[in-house]
Design brief:
alpha+beta; 8-stranded antiparallel β-sheet; 8 strands
């Protein structure tokens, strides 16, 4: 069954998402998650995603047993194109933890605008952080 959302429905969903999102810092993340990150960083992948920018906030979303942490990454190599990487750590009730990198490659028009995230335009690539494999594009 397909139904359409009204603007009020979308506003409610947006408010719920904002209520679920908390800003924290790297040092306040659970030790188990940080330990997993450190062990993964010691393994090399075919893509160098850089390192965690601990000066930036970490965003945590807790949604009924699915907890995600979003961390900004700093590149360790000189970039030839404009892109931004975020590491997303997804922890489920099952104790399974997944690690993804979302690479945002904005259009030149968006870069020359006010760069409002709500009006982002460009490509988003999703990588498996552990293997460096490209999982998809949006």
């Amino acid at each position: 069954m397909v139904s359409s959302c009204t603007e009020d429905d979308l506003n409610v969903i947006e408010k719920q998402e904002k209520n679920l999102t908390q800003s924290t810092v790297y040092d306040q993340m659970p030790e188990a998650v940080k330990s997993n990150l450190e062990s993964i960083y010691n393994k090399k992948t075919k893509i160098d995603f850089g390192f965690i920018n601990q000066d930036k906030p970490v965003f945590k979303i807790d949604n009924q047993g699915l907890i995600t942490f979003t961390l900004a990454l700093k590149t360790s190599v000189k970039k030839t194109t404009s892109y931004y990487d975020n590491l997303v750590v997804e922890k489920r009730n099952t104790k399974k933890t997944n690690f993804y990198v979302f690479r945002y490659i904005p259009t030149e028009e968006w870069l020359s605008s006010n760069m409002d995230l709500s009006t982002y335009s460009g490509e988003i690539q999703v990588f498996d952080f552990q293997t460096g494999s490209l999982l998809g594009r949006m």
